Amino acid sequence: MAELLSSSEFRICNSIEDAEIVILETCAIRKKAEDKVYSLLGRLKQLRKKSGLPKKIVVCGCMVTEDGAKNLVEEHGVSVVLGPRRISRIAEALHESETEPVIDISFVWALPPYDISAPYISGVSAYVTVMQGCSNSCSYCVVPSRRGAAQSKPLRQIIDEIKLLETKGYKEVILLGQNISYFGIDKPDTPRLIDLLEIIESESRISRIRFVTSHPAFIDDKFIERLSKLRRVMPNIHLPIQSGSNRILKAMRRGYSSERFLELVRAFRNGNENFTINTDFIAGYDGETPADHCETLELIEKAELDGAYAFPYSERNGTRAALTNNENSIPIIERKKRCKEILDKVKKVALERRKRDIGRSVEVLIEAPGVGRSEGNINVEFEGGRSNEFGIVKIKEVSSFAMCGELEDNCLQEDGIEK
Ligand code: SAH
Ligand code: SF4
Fold first, then answer.
1. Ligand 1 center from residue 29 Cα (angstroms)
2. pLDDT of residue 214
3. Element (H, E) at 361
4. Is 16 helix (H, G, I), strand (E, B) or coil?
5. Which of 52, 292, 337, 410 has its CA 20 to 30 A from that of 128?
6. Could you give the strand order of the β-sheet that contains 56-61, starting from the edge strand earlier in sequence?
7. Cα distance between residue 141 and residue 71, in whole Å
8. Distance between CA 173 and CA 11 in Å, rounded?
9. How far is ligand 2, taken at its centre, from the CA of residue 138, in Å?
10. How many angstroms separate the alpha carbon of residue 240 from the centre of ligand 2?
11. pLDDT means per 10 residues in the chain (419 residues)?
12. Ligand 2 pocket, 237 CB below 6 A?
């Protein structure tokens, strides 16, 4: 949205107190995220009372629902409400709202000519949304109801976006989709994810390609084999498992077992033991016993994870879990405790993985002098270097999620492929 608005008469301002328009891009995945938006809306109401600013409040993203939109306008003084697939209409909607509030939460994706991804991560990496929505039905998840069914972006548009980013000097693209492993399945004549990655490698010269978020139930051995041949797709995957207990995975309707997850982990690392694997966990899902939780802790060791996020389970209205399982719910304090245990275990396991990197020379994409990321997406620190160039860093020290070393070589990529 910042990118889209920067080409019209709008300017980004430095403080919320001075802003004539405040845009809130919202997340609804957990209740805490939604609560934060309501508290910010309360603060904006106070500001407006005092100074008359902001004149307009815009609420976008997953918090927006059919029922909630009217309430945002009537109770919270919001002028524009845009659903997740409509944010590229931001400039238009701001103009339309001069006369009356605008509510547009249609699930029809507003695609070209506007939908060029905004830059991200210090002008080195950029996100490219390749699909919207999700057609799964994980029991705890609000995404399908807030974002609608999966819809893949047309191939030509993705390639054009990447080429544009390339000419702007970006070295890395991160393809985005809620369940990116599902890419193309919604359109029979569209390439699947692995085809897309191969096409990007052959048609663009972008140096690094990543993709998130993958889903274990939609990855097969053929995918992994073809992936291993792609040199510019980075050796890292974010592959959320959610739980190490098959009983809980079944209740969550995830469609795979912990054994299958471990098989995938082995297959990704087969031939490249430095392939890094990150995951997500939900702690304290309804009915999760201490034994289920132990299975999760064991899985962290077995999978030798490089990193993970863990979230205390949050009941979301309208999900299958919120409708059915309430009598089995785990106290919030216990969910948080289990969450911490998961994160502590991940920290320990990841440290062991990183120790193996001591003495290795790793290629780093430098984001700013002194900091960059390895091919495995690990933060690396060193002395010197120039932004947006590649360097080789000899690793001297490590922590669980970062490495530190000496910049050996700092050679500019001349043609974006060969160094
Ligand atoms: N599509 C991805 C995840 C998208 S949501 C997948 O299927 O794996 C990002 C993460 O938020 C999830 O991996 C999950 O760990 C967490 N999450 C989703 N719903 C949640 C809920 N109701 N409570 C707590 N965490 C949740
Ligand atoms: Fe939610 Fe991910 Fe499941 Fe889709 S696949 S319903 S986004 S958790």
1. 7
2. 98
3. strand 361-368
4. helix
5. 410
6. 21-26, 56-61, 80-82, 102-104
7. 23
8. 26
9. 6
10. 10
11. 78 90 94 93 94 96 89 94 91 93 89 54 82 95 93 92 89 96 92 98 97 98 97 98 98 98 98 96 97 98 98 94 84 98 98 98 96 97 94 98 89 44
12. no
pLDDT digits (tens, 9 = 90+) for 304-343: 999 999 999 999 998 999 988 578 999 999 999 999 999 9
E-strand stretches of 164-290: 172-176, 208-212, 236-238, 276-283
Pocket test for ligand 2, best of 145, 179, 185, 309 (most atoms within 8 A of CB): 179
At residue 351, the 3 state secondary structure works out as: helix
What's the rounded Cα separation, in Å, for the pair 38 and 82? 16
Q: What domains can you pick out in the chain, each with its CATH number?
A: 2-104 (3.40.50), 120-355 (3.80.30.20), 361-418 (2.40.50.140)
pLDDT given at position 350? 98
Q: What is the largest CA-CA distance in the chain?
A: 64
User: Are the C-beta atoms of 184 and 190 separated by less than 8 Å?
Assistant: yes
Mutate to test the pocket of ligand 1, among 183, 212, 285, 311 (most ligand atoms within 8 A of CB): 311
Which of these, 317, 339, 318, 343, lies nearest to 330 by C-alpha position?
339
Look at residues 183, 5, 176, 151 and name the one whose alpha carbon lies nearest to residue 80. Answer: 5
Centre of ligand 1 from the C-alpha of residue 344, in Å: 20
Cα 231 to averaged position of ligand 1 atoms, centre (Å)? 30
| Both tokens assigned to 104 | 């547009």
For the CA of 150, the nearest ligand: 2
CA of 139 to the centre of ligand 2 (A): 9
What is d(CA 335, CA 293) in angstroms, rounded to the nearest whole number?
10
Contact between 315 and 281 under an 8 Å Cβ cutoff? The reply is: no
Atom from ligand 1 closest to the CA of residue 280: 15
Predicted pLDDT of residue 130: 93
Give residue for tokens 């990183």: 354
Instruction: Using alpha carbons, select from 34, 41, 112 the residue that is nearest to residue 74.
Output: 41
Whether the CB-CB separation of 208 and 220 falls below 8 Å is answered with no
Nearest atom of ligand 2 to the alpha carbon of 254? 3
What residue's CA is closest to ligand 2, atom 1? 141
Name 7's Cβ contacts closer than 8 Å, sequence gap at least 6.
none
SS3 call for 383:
coil
